[in-house]
């Protein structure tokens, strides 16, 4: 029986790879020095095949038929790429692959000069991403069509000589030079920027970064923090930054306890403290917070004095054993149990926190599914919709959520789980 073209390609690639390994281990010095360059050449050629394939699959609607709104998310699930890695390929597929018009006629790539050097292996995916970003900027859009074409050709010519960072630097200077008139004068009042970004750190805790152009808004925040950030005594040796950080936490804690706080993801927000059963028996020397990660024993003891803190006891496999409730409503307690187990969207690779998720019945309610922990899973809106409209299978195994991908994503349909601290500890 004749093997398929894909199987033939796999066999030939395996042979070539084995020969290359032999050179890497036992070749001459000159040959081994050439191996990294050859590997980069091969990697770029493989990227070309990947990009062309992605463009074709997207054009044929293969990803959309399987419930994906974007090829980026489909590639993340199919290959296991981080989202930015998948987006890099889809960007290249949109920019350097020839297209088909609505009438079926062939159209050139959006970046024809870049497509040429990419196909020749003289540039990589990061270069394509940089060129696409530069030529999609507001300054580039203001260029005349011929200026834009000339700039693209110039950037493509530079791509083989510069690193992506260097290319971006030179490319920005080129476009700024061509866009000498700059943006048209705007006599309207400037748009005020008021933003606050919260970022969780992988080892626990987090950082805040904000900007408030609205003077009244900033004054309100500054007045509250300043009132709580004064040195407690003459011997208070905390820095101004430390005092202000603790003041902000104090104010937020007070609002959680006494303020009229809107519901967050279907419930009033409170601080959940996840305590292992063994730690509880050892006088609770360790615990974990929903947003902040691991908490020090001193902070834990302070939190346990707060009636608005809900203690959730976990067993050795990271499963909730007992859920403390500050109201009688059962749905809130069940949600807390799901939150304690899933810590956010349970879909593998998703980092949406519990405040962004919805609770999904694994066996639908209308088909007899019960509202109990063993039949509930936390999913963000994207993965909730995906679960209902695609062939992904969700189940609870050993008390924890598990996802089985469609066969087209993984022919062996190997179960996947979210990488959580409590899962690692249970191994």
TrEMBL record:
Every HNH nuclease domain range: 333-385
Top-rank lineage group of the source organism: Bacteria
Gene3D superfamilies reported for this sequence: 1.10.30.50
InterPro entries, alphabetized: DUF222 (IPR003870), HNH (IPR002711), HNH_nuc (IPR003615)
Record-linked CDD domains: HNHc (cd00085)
SMART domains in the record: HNHc
Family note: Belongs to the Rv1128c/1148c/1588c/1702c/1945/3466 family.
Protein name: DUF222 domain-containing protein
Source organism: Pseudonocardia charpentierae
